[in-house]
Amino acid sequence: MNDPLSIAELKLDPRRAAAELRTASGVPFILRPLEAGDGRILGAYFLGLSPGTRALYAPHPMDQETADSLCAAAASSDVIRLIAVLPGDGMIAYSILMPGLTDGERERYPRAGVDADPARDCLVAPSVADAWQGRGVGSPCLRHVISVARRLGRRRLMLMGGVYKDNERAIRVYEKCGFRAVGTFLAGPDGKRPAQDMCLDLQVDN
Q: Which CATH superfamily is domain 7-201 in?
């Protein structure tokens, strides 16, 4: 494992989880942890998402108030929030990396025959701005999140809240990065939309 990392070390030096990346067409961007001063660009990112993208992503509200709250807590929270920023400060992607599990994953994964351990597993919730979807942003961002999770010594990376089964573009990205489907369930506001859980074993190469 290269450059092992702890949450405490990351809080002291967030740059240890930053990376210079490129889109599929070669556009450079920086993926880095959220900082206290990012409220403006994070809020603009949230408010710029289409209703369709918002409907696929629901870990928290997507508004300016939430952006300000997340930035205020960035230095103290154990949850790692990574933002993809273009030269010139435009934000094109946002990912959550959460050590531990929510109640939903702790309930669903054992039903699918998968051992779930909050002390060793972690969750990811990635998103990409509408204008950048399908342009090779999601895969490099997700691969870097996977690298950070490995450096934190986690055993398994799971999708936070799973993924809707009709979200084929996202599923292709997850599969490309080594995730596998482990179970299905019903989700959404009415609890009737088919979804699936997917996870990645971090202790094997993909």
A: Gcn5-related N-acetyltransferase (GNAT) (3.40.630.30)
Q: Do 163 and 57 form a contact (C-beta atoms < 8 A)?
A: no
What the block records as the tokens of 5 is 């990392």
Give the C-alpha distances (Å, rounded to integers) separating 191 from 80, 106, 188, 194: 28, 18, 5, 9
Asked if residue 116 lies in contact with residue 95, where contact means CB atoms within 8 angstroms, the answer is no
What single letter denotes the amino acid at residue 128? V
Give the domain ranges of the chain: 7-201
| Burial (CB count <10 Å: 0-12, 13-18, 19+), residue 190 | exposed
Going residue by residue through the chain (206 aa), what tens digit of pLDDT does each one get? Answer: 478 999 999 999 999 999 999 999 999 999 999 999 999 999 999 999 999 999 888 789 999 999 999 999 999 999 999 999 998 879 999 999 999 999 999 999 999 999 999 999 999 999 999 999 999 999 999 999 999 999 999 999 999 999 999 999 999 999 999 999 999 999 988 889 999 999 999 986 65
> Are the CB atoms for 142 and 177 separated by under 8 Å?
yes
Amino acid at 98: M
